[in-house]
Design a protein that fits this description.
This protein is 83% helix and 0% strand. It is mainly alpha-helical and 426 residues long. 52% of the residues are buried. The longest helix has 35 residues. The chain has two domains: 160 residues, MFS general substrate transporter like domains (Growth Hormone, Chain: A), CATH 1.20.1250; 206 residues, MFS general substrate transporter like domains (Growth Hormone, Chain: A, Up-down Bundle).
Length: 426
């Protein structure tokens, strides 16, 4: 008897991919906090540090549609390998610029690094469903996200420690080395089948990707719900970290470090839970639950940060926010992976990423403007309530539409009437 799909091994190719991506993710989190801190320390300007966060996200908005088209037209493995190799070169150039304290050059190269990441992500996300056994998509995504949780936990701690001991140059060079290893780990992946690639070009190809996203009602509602969620609370992690530094200036370093550790632990915790129920949990239901949880999570996080007299409340706030972010982010990704045709998958995933990133940047900008008048605490509270009020209807539509489709597919269909047989009945 064939083993159930849920127990089918993921295979050596997946685990090689997982090892490379895990190491590369860890390298990224080494510099995620260390680089903005270095920019802020070098320039003596807090807005300059925030600018590094903005540059980290902005290329996803501009490049994502074309990155999705590359993933649908070219061999996705080759695209991922090429961007990893180029990223290694860019981080080496960043290290050289940082050694000369050329802050502007470092920030420009950071933008280029994020352009390469924007090209790589839809290619990798599109590869995943084709490299694992049927029914194991949530398992594969959860394992990759578990590695992200480890990176989120260890990366900021290691990055800030290396920043003190080795300088930002050492952090950047180490990140570059992880890109090279990740590129080598992609070599065993099979090339994408030619018949799964699009032949569309230019604006027609981009319009085709938008039609594929909009034409599927479940995908449309799920991506809309996620985008609205990011618009309301997508910048909560950055805002809470900044607020920790403002409210507890004397102990900002340890508290922000504890907050980062809490984010990583929360990410790990939710992947462990999903590891037990991953085959039966509908992605749209996961999105609905996270919509309901937005307001309570925001209230709890604000309460913990405001009263943070030690590292435990700060870590707890990070844990809550990261669990929530994981839940409202994983569901729509899986919906796009499962429902988009292979020839459109890269563009659908890229447009989804562009929408959420644009919402996140808007959230960061509007939050910064309102924080000057109201303070970050009230802004976070109001944003959480708005997230629940506006996102629940969309998430419920996605879930109900998917359930209705499943009910129609499972309903018994009447057999067609038998045609009369010439010469009488037998």
């Amino acid at each position: 008897m064939t083993a159930p799909a849920a127990r089918t091994p993921l295979g050596g190719v997946f685990w090689t991919l997982w090892a490379g991506r895990s190491l590369s993710t860890l390298g990224g989190y080494l510099q995620f906090l260390a680089l903005p801190l270095w920019v802020q320390q070098t320039t003596g300007s807090a807005p300059a540090g925030v600018l590094a966060f903005v540059v980290f996200h902005l290329p996803k908005v501009v490049v994502s549609p074309y990155a999705g088209l590359l993933a649908d037209r070219l061999d996705r493995r080759s695209v991922a390998i090429a961007t990893d190799a180029a990223s290694a070169l860019v981080t080496a150039a960043m290290a050289a610029a940082a050694a000369g304290r050329h802050v502007v050059t470092v920030v420009v190269l950071l933008g280029l690094l994020q352009v390469l990441a924007a090209v790589r992500v839809p290619a990798l996300s599109s590869i995943l469903p084709d490299t694992i056994p049927a029914g194991r998509l949530m398992a594969a995504n959860s394992l990759l996200d578990a590695a992200t949780g480890v990176a989120m936990t260890l990366g900021p701690l290691l990055g800030t420690a290396l920043l003190t001991g080795w300088g930002i140059e050492g952090v950047l060079l180490l990140n570059g080395l992880t890109f090279l290893v990740a590129a080598l780990c992609l070599v065993p992946l099979p090339p994408a089948p030619v018949d799964g690639r699009t032949t569309q070009t230019g604006l027609a190809a981009l319009a085709g990707g938008l039609r594929a996203l909009w034409g599927d009602r479940v995908v449309r509602y799920a991506v809309a719900a996620e985008s609205v969620m990011y618009l309301c609370v997508g910048a909560a992690t950055e805002q809470l970290a900044i607020w920790l530094g403002q409210v507890h200036a004397a102990s900002a370093g340890p508290l922000i470090g504890a907050f980062g550790v809490g984010c990583g632990l929360g990410w790990l915790a939710v992947t462990v839970v999903l590891g037990r129920t991953r085959e039966s949990l509908a992605p749209t239901r996961m999105l609905w639950w996270s919509a309901l949880a937005a307001a309570p999570v925001s209230v709890a996080a604000v309460f913990l940060v405001r009263g943070a007299t030690g590292v435990l409340p700060a870590a707890a706030a990070g844990l809550l926010v990261s669990v929530h972010q994981f839940l409202y982010g994983l569901g729509p990704v899986m919906v796009c992976q499962q429902r988009a045709a292979s020839s459109h998958r890269g563009r659908v995933l890229a447009f989804r990423r562009m929408a959420t990133t644009l919402s996140q940047l808007t959230s960061l900008a509007v939050g910064a403007l309102l924080a000057g008048q109201l303070g970050l605490g009230p802004v976070l509270l109001v944003s959480g309530v708005l997230a629940t009020v506006t996102t629940v209807p969309l998430a419920r539509l996605a879930h109900r539409t998917e359930r209705a489709e499943q009910a129609v597919a499972a309903a018994p269909h009447p057999l067609p009437a038998a045609a009369p047989v010439a010469g009488g009945t037998r």
